[in-house]
Amino acid sequence: MRVLFSGDRGRWLSARRYEVLTERSQVLAGSRFAMELGRWLAAEAGVYLTRVVDRKTSHGETFLVTDGGLHHQLAASGNFGTVIRRNYPIAVANAFDREPVETVSVVGCLCTPLDRLGDQVALPRADVGDLIAIFQAGAYGASASPAAFLGQGPAREMLV
């Protein structure tokens, strides 16, 4: 099962797909079907918060540099077994009441082009000190991320 991202439609396990999975050929007649539901069950239970530490424009593209990144949230960066990178739902946490006014890329603080949390995201203006919220971060966050990568520390986790 998978978590739906913006632009996705419908449920992943439709009735027809279920039929196909349960109708096995004779050679598999004695087999059982099982799914690992970890991310599907836990993803929406978490939000990753990171603070904007710099705002840069390069070649006409605006970047919000944060104090977090792939070392805390590898899955959101698209580097955790993702074939096609997609943005997780993202917002300026202290600006929920403001409309998007610009398209930016949200990046981490590491010196690698892989440290991208959001590509070309429509957001309200964000400046140094603002909080970025990455939703659907309840699975494969800190536990699956390289916290010590390039000498960075672990993410602080809180249960609310």
Average predicted confidence as pLDDT: 80
Extract low-pLDDT stretches.
none
Shape: elongated
Q: Which CATH class of the domain at 44-149 applies here?
A: Mainly Beta
Count of helical segments? 2
Spatial ordering of strands, largest sheet: 3-6-1-2-4-5
Terminal-residue CA separation: 26 Å
Tell me the structural class: mainly beta
Work out the number of β strands: 6
State which percent range the strand residues make up. Answer: 25-35%
Oligomerization: single chain
Task: Fill in the CATH topology of the domain at 44-149.
Answer: Lyase, Ornithine Decarboxylase, Chain A, domain 1
Cα Rg: 18 Å
Largest sheet: 6 strands, mixed
* CATH level-four homologous superfamily name of the domain at 44-149: Lyase, Ornithine Decarboxylase, Chain A, domain 1
Percent helix range: under 10%
H/E series: HHEEEEEE
What's the CATH architecture name of the domain at 44-149?
A: Beta Barrel
Could you characterize the architecture of this molecule?
The chain is mostly beta strands. The protein has a domain of 106 residues: Beta Barrel (Lyase, Ornithine Decarboxylase, Chain A, domain 1), CATH 2.40.37.10. The chain has two helices and six strands, in the order ααββββββ. Strands 3-6-1-2-4-5 form a six-stranded mixed beta sheet, with no helix packed on it. A hairpin with an 8-residue loop joins β4 and β5. The longest helix has 8 residues. It is elongated, with a radius of gyration of 18 Å. The relative contact order is 0.22.
